[in-house]
Amino acid sequence: MARKTTGGARLGAAELARRQRDISVSEFFAKNRHLLGFDNPAKALLTTVKEGVDNALDACEEAGILPEIRVEIRQLDETRFRVAVEDNGPGIVRAQVPKIFGRLLYGSKFHRLRQSRGQQGIGISAAGMYGLLTTGKPVVITTRTGPRKPAHQMELVIDTRRNEPRVRRDERVDWPVAHGTRVEIELEGNYRGGQHSVDAYIRQISLANPHAQLTYVPPRAEEHGSEHVFPRVTEELPRATAEIKPHPYGVELGVLMQMFRDTRARNLRGCLTGDFSRVSARIAEEICKRARVAPSRRPSEITREEAERIHRAIGETRIMGPPTDCIAPIGEALIDRALRAEVEADFYAAVTRRPAVYRGNPFLIEVGLAYGGRLPAEEPITLYRYANRVPLQYQQGACAITRAVTSTDWRKYQLQQPRGALPVGPMLLMVHIASVWVPFTSESKEAIAHYPEIVKEVRLGLMECGRKVAAHIRRRRREADEAKKRAYIEKYIPQLAIGLQQILELDDGERDRVAATLAEVLERSRRN
Q1: Hey, which end of the chain has fewer CB within 10 Å, N or C?
Q2: Per-position DSSP letters for 268-321, written without gaps between them
């Protein structure tokens, strides 16, 4: 006897198949906006500013232009804001504007192994999509590619069902800018202060980009007549980065097998030397010999067992580290200058580590430290996290940088530290990872994945800075102890002179000369 069912009629296979359809990437993210950092109004406002500034800095640097970026936030009502980010970059070719701002996963950086802020082609178009969803207003882009070229202004929206741009308006405008781009997005948001505010983000971005001049106009600035200018610290642009091939160390077996299938090389030797960096003909021969695979073997015919032997042989072969011209670190000198310009402290230190590798991708860790001064002494230290010069504002507890900081024994470096927590003391710590591909934990790019290689390098940089600050703290404590002892001696020099006067029967003049001599000896010992 058939069992009765409830909850409506059952669907057959044909009906189920008819209901299947492709899901557009923009449709997916429109329903899952929290994955991109738009999960609450305050965070949405910050994420919109961040994506606009990231794009502006990348555009200026790739064109070899010292960035001058203006960020304006206008509050239209209690929950609605208009964000404008303007740069002096090279501008955007008119035909490319709709694709860049109106299509998710469209960009030029995903397949390149070189350092850049953006990677996925999601950020600024997602910010425009969020603005459209919350206010119904299109993104407004004004751009000009040169002083003799006309300026164009477009209004566009994203068709989320097809992940395609729809241009509402496209016209020439008078714009008194020689070249550059201005992006305006109206959105629902919440402006507030504190650690995760736009104000804090602008300050942090200026620390990691000392070559950029930032002008920030907060909401209601016209009422108070205040706009904040963060001048550049250096007139030199970051070193131009070159695109590289993957380094063989850390390449996973499945990726290696895919590379063998996709390579244009005719033999294994050519694939190893042509598709990887730092693999010479001699190194390729050594890998083939260790793996017991003929160098002349066609890569597309390599079996899984042979690929596994090659993968193991790569790890056993000594290969030069990855090239560093794909990474542009801030540099110890500029980190030190930026910290001195922004943070009032007694001691500064900066460390730039040598490049290392994770999953075949080169990366480099930098650590900057400011100690003492007006920094709060009885609270946990201030930690600034950066990836490719971009501040990471959220998910601090889930980040590899935080794990490296909390797993370092700061008590060895004269700081208090509760178990498993940030150290306590008057210190600001900034940690920067520069990489051709930063392993973020999510599309919102808020935390770095816990790769052991990354955590290890961060800890080594922290320990190097820790030794410097510990030497400073010990020296200050020693100086304070000496000053305390000297104060005792200075206090008792007159009494000692009186005692000598009584024992040696000196007159008052001789007593005063003895006291002066003792004070001079004490001062000389201090200078020495």
Answers
A1: N
A2: HHHHHHHHSTT--HHHHHHHHHHHT--TTS-GGG--HHHHHHHHHHHHHS--PP
**36: phi then psi, degrees, rounded to nearest 5:** -105, 5
Tell me if 470 sits within 8 A of 413, measured CB to CB: yes
CA-CA distance, 109 to 121, in Å (whole number)? 8
Domain that holds residue 375: 332-473
CB atoms within 10 A of CB 452: 9
Write down the residue that tokens 């990354």 correspond to: 454
For residue range 119-156, what is the model confidence (pLDDT) as tens digits? 544 667 888 888 888 888 898 999 999 899 999 998 88
Pull the structure tokens for residue 366.
Answer: 């930098």
In single-letter form, the type of residue at position 414 comes to Q
From 448, 350, 307, 339, select the one nearest 390 (Cα to Cα): 448
As beta bridge partners, residue 85 has 71, 183
Is 488 found in the same domain as 460? no
Please write the tens of the pLDDT for every residue from 75-109. 898 889 999 999 999 998 888 888 888 776 644 44
CA angle 359, 441, 113 (to 5 degrees): 40
Please provide the DSSP assignment of 397-451 as one string: GGSHHHHHHHHS-GGGGT-B--TTS--BSSEEEEEEEEESS--BSSTT--SB---
Given 286, 316, 346, which residue is the final one in a domain? 316
Q: Do residues 173 and 69 touch, judged by C-beta distance below 8 A?
A: no
Q: Give all strands of the β-sheet with 151-159 in edge-to-edge order.
A: 164-173, 151-159, 139-144, 180-188, 80-87, 68-75, 213-217, 228-230
Contact present, 244 and 233 (Cβ < 8 Å): no
Q: Are residues 142 and 216 in the same domain?
A: yes
Burial group, residue 239, by CB count within 10 angstroms (0-12, 13-18, 19+): middle
Question: Can you give the C-alpha Rg of the chain in angstroms?
Answer: 31
- Does residue 454 contact residue 400 with C-beta atoms inside 8 Å? yes
* Cβ–Cβ < 8 Å for 143, 171: no
Residue 512 CA to residue 489 CA, distance in Å, equals 16
